[in-house]
Fold:
Amino acid sequence: MVSIAATILREEEGWRSRPYLCSERYPTVGYGFRIGPQDADIKLYDFELPQSAGEVWLQALIDQRAARLPALPAGCGEVRHAVLVCMSFQLGHAGLMAFKNMWAAIAREDYTTAAREMLASRWARQTPGRAKRMAELMDRGTL
Structure:
């Protein structure tokens, strides 16, 4: 699961060694790592992150996010588990846990409904391409 989540996040986030402001105006670096408060002056973040350090950071964040997920049904599988880790990476734990109808569908092992619930969200309206890709993975359960 961890390597699947890393593969997905590398693709979704891309790599940037120099800090930048993300679409929500947070200073960000590496694979989408938030490093400061919203609307902070990006000039205050004058450094370059080696990709090898970014890989360690990515793995640590994946492990942290995975450890906070609730118990999942046996049928959930590694790809769906990775999707939930990736959603937590983007939305934070509280944001992920707010998907009550998605969680109810996952508990029933109804992954088509879980995917539909993912798409019926503010998250999907804000990042439609990413949400669609994640929902497809949730529905199929395969890469």
Remarks:
- The CA atoms of residues 112 and 139 lie 5 Å apart.
